[in-house]
Amino acid sequence: MRVPQRLSPKVLLIDPVRMLPSLLLPLVGVLFVGGFSARSYGYAAAGVIAAVVYAIIRWATFTYEIIGDRLETKRSLISRSVRTIPLERIRGVDVSTPPMHRLLGLTVLKIDTGASGDAEEAKLAGITRVEAERLKAVLLRRTAEPETHVHDAATPSGPKERSIIGVPRRWLLYGPLSGAYLLTPFAFVGGAVGLAFQWGDELGFSQDTAWSAGEWLWGHPYLLLAVAVLLVLAMPFAGGLMYAIFNWDFQLKRRDGYLVAERGLINRRSVSLESQRVRGYEIVDGLAERWARVARVWAIVTGLGDSETRGQLLPDVPRQVAFQVTRDAIGPYQAALRRHPPVARQRRLFRAVFPWFALAVVSAVAVWLTGSMLWWILLVLTLLLAGVGVPLGLDRYASLGHGYDGVRLAVRSGSLRRSQAVVERRAVVGWRLRQTWFQRRAGVLTLIAGVGAGKGGYSAIDVSKAQAVDFPAEVTPEWLAPFLNPTDS
After folding, report:
1. What is the pTM of this model?
2. Sequential pLDDT tens for the chain (489 residues)
3. Is residue 126 left, alpha or beta, with left meaning phi > 0 and alpha meaning psi from -120 to 50?
4. Rounded to whole angstroms, what are the CA distances from 61 to 74, 126, 292, 368?
5. Cα separation of 185 and 240, whole Å?
6. Beta partners for 84?
7. Where would I find the YdbS-like PH domain in this sequence (predicted)?
8. Which sequence spans correspond to the domains of the chain?
């Protein structure tokens, strides 16, 4: 007989604690309103007990089991809810270990079928590590044999595993170059200010006091400037620290037909991507990263939700390492990128220079009319930014490119965030031509390769009309042949 399985009972030690943030404010309010009397403490205790009872009921009414070729999860708290997930539709399994789960030897297993966008299809938020690994092996099989009991099935033999790369810890120093988490100090300050206004009365000072403190700081601009400078100086350190916590001990492996990426210090996370569904990769770098010759890599996978997080193959690593890993894990791109027409360079220079030049003209007129020092400062700044726009525009043009090596096509664009997408030909499901009014005037177009994976489409920006016709004809000649070489009926 089948016996539905439940989450580990240890999760009952986690759920009440996880509910505390939402209960804290009401409980504190009850205590203050009741004047910290015995009755108010009784009400607060009743609230805590109710939260524990609710967690027990949720645990007792949630079950999961593998029945034949499908996974079923059931919840019957108030109404009965049954979710069925065919194993063949599962695109990936994400196993993570948040801090409290790690202390109790538990994990969180998330299942992605690609049918629910960025959200997971199902989540088992409290199973043992052994059960998580066993379920992961079963759920990721291409064909599932019928199982009558989730614990009666024989434990699968050890998976074949091969390490592709382990990111050295010294490479975590590249983290601040990516710009990720750089605003962490400002986020902490903003959160602290928000808590002060929200819980000020409970913490012993009113909103009027907070406003008075803000007005005092506003009246001392040099102190406010010093705080801002300190926050800016703290950006690379705080950002680098958060980056290291999230990408600690990054490992990329190949295991039984899957690419497995593991990372994290506090919350250890393991993401499995089926190799047969990987259609390419995207290499991203910014200005600072290009200066340091490092890049990040994401996989382009069919049916993958939350691809910006779950599809990450590499954090910041040296560019030659990034290309070597993508060549070994997915496949090489072996052709040079083709340049776009010179008019594309003119468009990028115009966009990078003209707005600041126009503002400089306005500032010059204001200086001539008023002679104000503020307008002089604005005039100098806009002229400097217009000058910086020249190399920026040239770099944006140099970053443009597209190509095809007979197996994979590539498109590249961007400067502050340059992205090169390499996609297998078989992943292309259509072509789209887009042209704005300004592009029509310039005689260029944006060619979009529709792809049933990743972002759904990758653009070659500002290509010539000849390139817009020749490139699709080269990549998918069988699609365009009836139109380019019509035959008499």
Report:
1. 0.76
2. 467 888 888 888 887 777 666 665 566 665 555 556 666 667 667 777 777 888 888 888 888 888 888 888 888 767 778 888 888 777 778 888 888 888 888 999 988 776 555 455 688 888 898 888 888 878 876 433 444 444 444 444 455 778 999 999 999 999 888 887 887 887 777 777 666 666 555 555 555 666 666 676 667 677 777 878 888 888 888 888 999 999 999 999 988 788 899 999 988 888 888 888 889 999 999 999 999 999 999 999 887 655 666 788 999 999 999 999 999 889 999 999 999 999 999 999 999 999 999 999 999 999 898 888 888 989 999 999 999 999 999 999 999 999 999 999 999 999 989 999 999 999 999 999 999 999 999 999 999 999 987 788 899 999 999 999 999 999 999 887 776 665 554
3. left
4. 8, 14, 54, 76
5. 11
6. 72
7. 59-137, 408-469
8. 9-158, 170-247, 334-340+400-489, 347-392
Which distant-in-sequence residues (6+ apart) come within 8 Å of 19 by Cβ? Answer: 51, 55
Phi, psi of 474 (to 5 degrees): -75, -40
Beta-strand relationship, 294-301 and 122-128: unpaired
Q: Which has the closest alpha carbon to 227: 261, 195, 186? A: 186
Q: What is the DSSP letter of 332?
A: -
- Angle (deg, nearest 10), helices 207-218 and 221-247: 110
Residue 13 · residue 104 · CB < 8 Å: yes
d(CA 134, CA 124): 13
Residue 181 in 3-state DSSP? Answer: coil
Phi, psi dihedral angles at 371 (to 5 degrees): 70, 15
According to DSSP, the residues that pair with 278 across neighbouring strands are 301
Specify whether the CB–CB gap between 318 and 446 falls below 8 A: no
Q: What's the rounded Cα separation, in Å, for the pair 301 and 191?
A: 36
Dig out the tokens for 103 from the structure.
Answer: 């202390």
d(CA 429, CA 129): 40
Six token digits for residue 139: 């759920």
Kindly report the backbone phi and psi dihedral angles of residue 81, in degrees, each rounded to the nearest multiple of 5, phi listed first.
-125, 125
CA pair distance 216, 236, nearest whole angstrom: 29
Do residues 171 and 86 lie in contact, with contact meaning Cβ atoms separated by under 8 Å?
no
Largest distance between two CA atoms of the chain: 95
> Under 8 Å CB-to-CB from 299, ≥6 apart: which residues?
259, 273, 278, 280, 281, 282, 307, 311, 312, 313, 330
Q: What are the backbone angles phi and psi of residue 436, rounded to the nearest 5°?
A: -80, 175
Tokens of 133: 């690994």
Phi, psi of 130 (to 5 degrees): -65, -45
DSSP string, 66-102: EETTEEEEEEESSSEEEEEEEGGG--EEEEEE-HHHH
Residue 279: which of 426, 413, 411 has the closest Cα? 426
Other CB atoms within 10 Å distance of the CB of residue 415? 20
Which residues contact residue 193 at a Cβ distance below 8 angstroms, ignoring those fewer than 6 apart? Answer: 210
